[in-house]
Amino acid sequence: MHWCPRCRGVLLSPGPVDAPPERRNYRWVARGPEHRAARGGRRPPEAVAGTPRYTEIPRWGLLDTPAEPSAAPASRLDRAAAAAGKLLLWTAVAFVLAALAELGRYAILLYNRTRLVEPLLLRISDAAVLTFAVLAALLALLAAIAAVARLIQLRRAAYARVGRRDPRSPRALLLGSLIPVLNLVWPGVFLTEALTGRDDPRALRVIRIWWAVWVLGGLVAVAALCWRTADSLQAKADGVLVTALTDLLAAAVALLTLGVLNALAGRDLRGRTRISHRMTVAVDPAVPVIEPLHRTEQPQSAADARPGSAAGDNTGDEAGDREQEEVGAK
């Protein structure tokens, strides 16, 4: 081809079309549209406003998609922290089911005071109590480990914002949060330290509420275990109610734990990003928008200036003055 099919420019130098490559005295040179305009040729086409687009799929060019950077493999800590939310929710559900199983057993005890109970119903009740109790305990242990992993991440991010390193090792955080008796004190300290560099009274209030409920749940759990050592039938029946109350309190602790972790991450209980509201003081403008009304003295009428004017004229003037004042006030 001698001519460009688009711009109709010369592609080949004058010479035979079938000349071999070594006899062609030309080479390809790529120039922008402004080169032709600078030499006095045709003006380059004006740029089309808006985003460039094609009416059909282009049939030219090479598809060279850059390789996406490979993501670093997630560590065990990251995987455990990511599963903290779901594990805490499932733990709360398991404890609620365990509480319902205990309440069902208590209802069977009340029914058995005056009537006989079918052995099959007793086996179902015992199986439900044992199954949900073991399931809730296992999920609680897994959720506690995942929550500590999430706490480690939150503490690292909090200390990194202030240019420091977390002074507590992951092992110290794990042992202080899982060892009985010690885990009644240290988790609240660890959570409070996670607010380093932040002035968030709402998160601090949530941590204090969680700490109080956490200690109360631990004391109630110890009381429920001690109650099971009683020998009398009435004490054992009361122990069933105490166990149901302990399960419900454990479910509340699981939900509060999820709320605390979300509060430290700047989210609400459902995991949504919390939008902060800034309160400003509303003050009056420096220049009033509406100029205040100023009462002015009305000039005396000609009737008032004349001596001996009639009383009826004075009354009419006073009525006119009042009408003017009302109009000015409006």
Written account of the structure:
The protein is an all-alpha fold. It has a domain at 77-264. The protein has helices at residues 33-38, 76-82, 84-111, 119-161, 170-178, 186-193, 201-227, 233-264, 302-305, 311-329. Helix 4 (119-161) packs antiparallel against helix 5 (170-178). The chain is extended, with a radius of gyration of 42 Å. The relative contact order is 0.07. Residues 305-313 have low confidence and may be disordered.
Total number of beta strands: 0
- Low-confidence segments, ≥5 residues, pLDDT <50? 305-313
Number of helical stretches of at least 4 residues? 10
* Main sheet summary: none
How much of the residues is beta strand, in percent? under 5%
Instruction: Write down the overall mean pLDDT.
Output: 78
The arrangement of helices and strands along the chain is: HHHHHHHHHH
Q: Write down the overall geometry.
A: extended
Helix content: 55-70%
What is the rounded distance between the termini? 88 Å
Q: Would you tell me the structural class of the helices and strands?
A: mainly alpha
Report the radius of gyration as a whole number of Å.
42 Å
Compose a concise summary of this entry.
The protein has 330 residues and is an all-alpha fold. It contains ten helices and no strands.
